[in-house]
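Sample pair:
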Amino acid sequence: MIYIIIGPSGSGKTLVGEYLKEKGIRELISHTTREPRPGEVNGEAYHFVDEPAFHKILKVEENFYAGNFYGVSLEEVQKKSREGDVFAVTDINGAKAFKEKYEDSVRIIYVESSPRKLRERMKRRGDSRQSIRRRIDTYRKNKEAGQRFYADVILDNNYSKKTLFKMVDHALKSMHGK
């Protein structure tokens, strides 16, 4: 199974991904042209590359978001999915590309939060005011909340971590049967 996690910046996609890793589901690490945030390690959070290197990689999906390129390489998917369930954090276009290529092996998880919670989380993780404003504007302009309708499951991350993780556990059980 390939789980694709989508949602706006600050919604908790990374938190959901960390929990999936604890459950033994391997992450498909995206390549990005974005600069690392404090504490992010190359090859763990992302494969950080420059733009020319990014465009040479064969990818399942790629997108341009908030001034940077992101994408999951075909090699990453082939290598890690041989070992079992995997997940990737991507945008709606990436989710659609995975669904198109891998069809019934893909389950889409949408993580949602209120705009207030999104701002709080981005501020807490060290995003600049300008970056937060740009990401919230992108969220509104692209009507990202509407992407929930493409999802197999919607996780409401406006409560506690414990509540979110219970929702993830329930979602995994329900999606495996689909």
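Residues 1 and 85 are 5 Å apart (CA to CA).
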